[in-house]
Amino acid sequence: MKLRLLPCFLGIMVLLSQPLSAQYKNRPKPNLMRPDPVSEEQGRELLEGIRRMNLPTYYALRFQLRYMPHRGDDRWVSGSLWGTWSVQGNALRIFFPQISEGQSLTCFSYSGESPKAFISEDSEPVKTVSLAATGEELIPGMGLTVFDLQMPYLHWTDAVYEGPTRVKGRPAHRFILYPEDSADYGAIGAVRVYIDEDYQVILQAEVLDHSGNLMRTFQVGSLKKIGECWIVKEFNFIDAVNKSKARVMITGASLGNVFDLRFLDVGSAAEQVDPLPESAYEPTR
């Protein structure tokens, strides 16, 4: 059984495996689970299936970001996202109309082999987000990062198959992915991903530092079918250090409705009117 999941946050792209005999200097070592040839072949077939997925070219989402600190009161922020998908990567525009009193924020994210990200506050000049800074909070005090949104590790070609496992009772296959040596992601050294054996989607991802210590965990929540496409309604991003959780809850979705893709260009940062009509969105709750 295969789900056609929207590539927002969960943009599943090509992953290629490196020989298991490769050397791993100054980065987390893979935790090999003695995979048998049949399991490894099945895992590689899952990756090929992800590569062949037919996903919507145009999509837009409305969501609530809920930050749940280990101690203290929860905080909420509303947001919207527009995107397009291709085999080369995703182009996203994320807009938060009010991150504080009278202040908005727009983020542009472009994934692929050479990911880029930009932010603009209150339509001010766009600022480039360095790779090392993508691990920092997009909105101070809300727990969500550009790295969470962009998921650049799905394009890292240096990957090792660790073996079959289970996530919340579901059969899955585990890989550990490494960025290129020339890419500086700051404290991030690798990401471990768990791919559902039946649905061909990522169930969980663990961000590791250069010593292999857990930094963050990404978990998939509930699903909803809209038309012929399944989307993930809820994502959790858990900080292993301060025990906080950022939850993205999708409240409305527009799939396949065409809009001007120039809206996703950095040069359109000053434009803040939704290019889609209200009728294009289907509630997910």
What can you tell me about this protein's structure?
With 285 residues, the protein is mostly beta strands. It has helices at 37-51, 146-150, and strands at 58-68, 75-86, 89-100, 103-110, 116-121, 127-128, 158-167, 170-178, 188-196, 202-209, 214-220, 223-226, 229-232, 234-239, 245-255, 282-283. Strands 1, 2, 3, 4, 5, 6, 7, 8, 9, 10, 11, 14, 15 and 16 form a 14-stranded antiparallel beta sheet that branches. The longest helix is centred in the N-terminal third of the chain and has 15 residues, at 37-51. The two termini are 25 Å apart.
Quickly describe the structure.
Helix content is about 5%, strand content about 40%.
Break the fold down into its secondary structure elements and pairings.
Layout: H1 37-51, E1 58-68, E2 75-86, E3 89-100, E4 103-110, E5 116-121, E6 127-128, H2 146-150, E7 158-167, E8 170-178, E9 188-196, E10 202-209, E11 214-220, E12 223-226, E13 229-232, E14 234-239, E15 245-255, E16 282-283
Antiparallel strand pairs: 1-2, 1-15, 2-3, 3-4, 4-5, 5-6, 7-8, 8-9, 9-10, 10-11, 11-14, 12-13, 14-15, 15-16
